[in-house]
Amino acid sequence: MNKLVSLVAGIIFGIGLVISEMINPEKVLGFLNLFGNWDPSLAFVMIGALVVSSPLFHLIKKKEKPIFAENFNYSNNKNINNRLIIGSVLFGAGWGLVGLCPGPAISSIALLNIHSIIFIVAMFFGFYLVKLINFDNKNA
Amino acid sequence: MNIVNFTPVTATLGGILIGLAVVVFFLFNGRLVGISGIAANALTEKNNRFDNILFLLGLVIGPILYSLFTKNEINITISNSFILLIIAGLLVGIGTRISGGCTSGHGISGIGRFSLRSIVATITFMIVGILTVLIKNFI
Fold first, then answer.
1. Which of A111, A139, B82, B136 has the most Cβ atoms closer than 10 angstroms to its Cβ?
2. How confident is the model at residue A62 (pLDDT cuts 50, 70, 90)?
3. For residue A134, what pLDDT is reported?
4. Which of B58, B24, B57, B53 is nearest to B41 (CA)?
5. Is the dihedral of CA B65, B69, B70, B72 positive or negative?
6. What ipTM was estimated for this complex?
7. Which of B22, B86, B34, B78 has its CA nearest to residue A13?
8. Is residue B131 part of a domain?
9. A121/B63 CB distance under 8 A
10. Given this model, what pLDDT does residue A76 score?
11. Given this model, what pLDDT does residue B9 score?
12. What crossing angle do the helices spanning A114-138 and B82-99 adopt, rounded to 10°?
């Protein structure tokens, strides 16, 4: 059942990206263009998502376990360190360059847009590079 | 600053759906949605790989179902050169793995549970994104 939930959650998320138009990088760049022609829509997407998720997270966390899994499984990392800041700076720069982040990029595979597919291949190569480096560190 | 193309109603509706997806994943599977993490782990980790791939598949199926049922065409505009797309993709891939999250993982799942770490990450990538666009406008 948890497999079906993964698929359905992905579908709902993908439809949300379409309805909010966040699948369109131009819309995202409009939000980041704060000092020019600004489109505040992305802030409303986040508010909509947080109004639903935040109160329910806190209720669900009180449950003993999730419905289809043995336990809740998420990072409780509280470190605010160089890694967090450097990573966020790199991500912000890439995001601002073309207006794509991982969710909308992957959803846009549905549209068979060559530009977004090139971006995705590079993004996955980036994931792999970091994994490779971490692996080396663990074995050092 | 001029406000343009603002679509508060569809933005909020889409946001509510995204929030719902995150809640469903947490309530049933006990995991928090972070798409950079799900995508990277689908690539590099054996653990939960099938779940991760199914979630990503859902992300792709969502827009297709939307088009089928509403008969609306989905239009996106990307006007960057291939080399810029490669640089941006690498920055997003490397950056999100170093910081442990993207717009969904830090921006929604993290902020939703009041994680200070995620609030700092989100403010950082938003400021840098805004500065990047500002610099691009000058070039």
1. A111
2. very high
3. 76
4. B53
5. positive
6. 0.97
7. B22
8. yes
9. no
10. 84
11. 98
12. 40
Q: How far apart are CA B120 and CA B116, in angstroms?
A: 6
Q: Kindly state the percentage of chain A with pLDDT values over 90.
A: 90
Are A106 and B56 spatial neighbours (Cβ–Cβ below 8 Å)?
A: yes
Q: Which domain holds residue B36?
A: 8-138
Counted across chains A and B, CB pairs separated by less than 8 A come out at: 491
- Cβ atoms within 10 A of the Cβ of B72, count? 11
**B68-94: per-residue pLDDT in tens?**
999 999 999 999 999 999 999 999 999
- Contact residues, chain B, for A54 at CB < 8 Å: 111-114
**Interface-testing mutation among B3, B4, B29, B113, with chain A (most A C-beta atoms within 10 A):** B29
Q: What angle do CA B98, B28, A75 make, to 5 degrees?
A: 25
In-domain check, residue B63:
yes
Q: Is residue B2 part of a domain?
A: no
Backbone angles phi, psi at B73, to 5 degrees: -85, 140
Residue count of chain B: 139
Residue B42 lies inside a defined structural domain of this protein: yes
